[in-house]
Amino acid sequence: MADVVKLYGVAGSPFVCRVKIALNLKEIKHEFVVEDLSNKSADLIKYNPVHKKVPVLVHNGNPISESLVIIEYIDEAWKGVSILPQNAYEKAKARFWAKFIDDKCQPALFKAIASHGQEEAVAEVHEQLQFLENELEGKKFFGGDNINLVDISATFIAYWVGAAEEALGIKILIKDKFPKLIEWSDNYVNCQVVKDGLPPRETPVAFFKKRFGKA
Ligand SMILES: N[C@@H](CCC(=O)N[C@@H](CS)C(=O)NCC(=O)O)C(=O)O
């Protein structure tokens, strides 16, 4: 029997896009079920009763939530290109950086964006981003020649930060400070599997204007 794969999400969510990109990498056919987060569906509450958030992947009726968990599930459940390294140490390192991006980088970036690029908040985010800049030394992607879990985790940095900069007229990813990260962003968002998983740029730009723009 053919697999039935449904992804519950909203087009503008960087967490949902992570999952779309992982599905694209593995060439997994799926149905995208659009959620209204201001009026969550009974399915979403049933499938993710703990967090009640998207993304949720439902594979043959089995729900999985939390984007990083879903990506690891996709990697294990389907053959094709590997998203996590095979080597135990490299795998642990990939998980470490993905968690670092979620726990440290994204919250710091959000704070810097919300503050309209206030100096202290930007300095804090630069401290975090420097670790990623160093990690890219001698590599095209965090995964080396190919995209891996860390690249997908950093989708917000590659795409949403530029949209926030445009929407609010601020600068966070400074070229002189983060040449590798900027080169990586360009390479990453121009991969077809990534492009196919991202919303049009107007979507995040409009989101940041509405959420943080001056009235
Ligand atoms: N840690 C979660 C975060 C997911 C998340 O924050 N999703 C947002 C959309 S971007 C959401 O569903 N928000 C609805 C809510 O908070 O009620 C993941 O990695 O999947």
TrEMBL record:
One of its GO terms (biological process) is glutathione metabolic process. Coiled coil: none annotated. GO terms for cellular component: cytoplasm. SUPFAM superfamilies: GST C-terminal domain-like, Thioredoxin-like. It catalyses: RX + glutathione = an S-substituted glutathione + a halide anion + H(+). Residues 87-212 form the GST C-terminal domain. Keywords: Transferase. Transmembrane segments: none annotated. Its EC number is 2.5.1.18. Residues 3-82 form the GST N-terminal domain. InterPro entries: Glutathione-S-Trfase_C-like (IPR010987), Glutathione-S-Trfase_C_sf (IPR036282), Glutathione_S-Trfase (IPR040079), Glutathione_S-Trfase_N (IPR004045), GST_C (IPR004046), GST_C_Tau (IPR045074), Omega/Tau-like (IPR045073), Thioredoxin-like_sf (IPR036249). It holds the Pfam family GST_C. Belongs to the GST superfamily. Tau family. This is glutathione transferase.
